[in-house]
Write a structure and sequence with these properties.
This protein is 2% helix and 42% strand. By secondary structure, the chain is an all-beta fold.
Length: 172
C-alpha cells in the first residue's frame, strides 16, 4: 500500500497536460499549474490536486458537472468564484462546494487578487461524466476505463455542441 499521507510542501506544481492547455485567445484568460495528489496516495473514489492560478487568470472555463461533485479549499490568495449567475469573493481558508447540477451549478474560480491563487480541489470520480459549458454552449463527455495491459491509463473524451449532434441512425 502507498503511504496515505503527503505534506503539501511535497506537491510539485506542473503545467497542465497539453490536452488541457489553453491556446490562442483562450491563453490570455486561462492558465494554471497543477500538482496531482490522489494517485500518489492510492486514492480510488476521490480525486484531489493543488491548483495554482496566476493573477488575472482562470484555471478552467465556466462549467457544471452532471455527475461529479467538487470542493475547493483556498490555500493562498484571493479572487472570485462565479456560481450560476452570482459572483462571490473568496480568500484564504474559504471552502467552496460545487455539487452536480445544471447551468445554475456552473462554477469558475478567477484570480482577481495580487498574488497567485492556490487551492486544493477535491472531486468524486464517477464515470462517465458529462460537463457543460454555459458560456460557449459546449458539452463534454469523459469516461475512464481500466488501465491497458501495459498499465497505461485509458479514457474517452468528446467535446461538442448539441447543435452538431447527428441522428442516431445516421450511417446505419
Amino acid at each position: 500500500m502507498k503511504k496515505p499521507i503527503i505534506n503539501l510542501e511535497e506537491v510539485e506544481l506542473h503545467p497542465r497536460p497539453f490536452s488541457f492547455s489553453a491556446t490562442g485567445e483562450a491563453a490570455e484568460r486561462y492558465d494554471a499549474k497543477m500538482g496531482i495528489i490522489a494517485p500518489r496516495l492510492g486514492a480510488q473514489k476521490l480525486g484531489y490536486n493543488i491548483t495554482c492560478v496566476p493573477i488575472g487568470k482562470r484555471a478552467f472555463p465556466f462549467h457544471n458537472h452532471r455527475v461529479n461533485e467538487e470542493m475547493f479549499l483556498i490555500l493562498e490568495g484571493s479572487g472570485e468564484v462565479r456560481i450560476g449567475e452570482t459572483i462571490y469573493p473568496i480568500g484564504t481558508m474559504d471552502i467552496i462546494a460545487c455539487p452536480p447540477g445544471d447551468k445554475h451549478a456552473a462554477h469558475q474560480l478567477i484570480n482577481t487578487g495580487s498574488v497567485d491563487l492556490k487551492y486544493l480541489a477535491v472531486s468524486t470520480k464517477l464515470s462517465p461524466e458529462i460537463a457543460e459549458y454555459p458560456d460557449s454552449g459546449k458539452f463534454g463527455i469523459l469516461a475512464e476505463y481500466p488501465p491497458a495491459s501495459d498499465g497505461k491509463p485509458r479514457s474517452f473524451r468528446y467535446v461538442g455542441r448539441e447543435s452538431e449532434s447527428i441522428d442516431y441512425w445516421d450511417g446505419e
